[in-house]
Amino acid sequence: MAERNERHKGLVLHARDTARGDRIIDFLCDEGLLSLFLFGGPKSTLRSAATPFVSAEIEAYRDRRSDFIKLTGVNILETYEGIQKSFSHMQTASGA
Q1: How far apart are the first and last CA of the chain?
Q2: Residue 91 backbone dihedrals phi, psi, to 5 degrees
Q3: Are 13 and 56 in contact (CB under 8 A)?
Q4: How far apart are alpha carbons 81 and 27 in whole angstroms?
């Protein structure tokens, strides 16, 4: 039987909000690119990790019946604020 709880160390590449206010995070780790589902909207304590260019160690729960991987815990290792600011400026300049 496969383990449903997982731990990964990696980098948040992208985060997007859903219509319900939850968030989907693209997380790059040794196992590849994972799409993690973050429930709870803006008041979630896990929301701080849902920012691009955050290096973190995460805990996740893989649902056997669907392809969703739910983010259940996070330990932020580094935030790379300089990259976040530069990236934001590049997006603004390019009209993205």
Answers
A1: 44
A2: -65, -45
A3: no
A4: 17
- pLDDT over 90 percentage in the chain: 39
Superfamily of domain 5-94: Nucleic acid-binding proteins (2.40.50.140)
Reported as a single tens digit per residue, the pLDDT across 48-76 is 778 888 999 999 998 888 778 999 999 99
Radius of gyration of the chain (CA): 14
> What does each C-alpha distance from 35 to 1, 11, 29, 46, 70 come to in angstroms?
22, 12, 11, 15, 9
pTM score over 0.85: no
Instruction: Write down the pLDDT at residue 73.
Output: 93
Q: Residue 46: which residues within 8 A CB-CB, separation 6 or more?
A: 38, 40, 71, 72, 73, 74
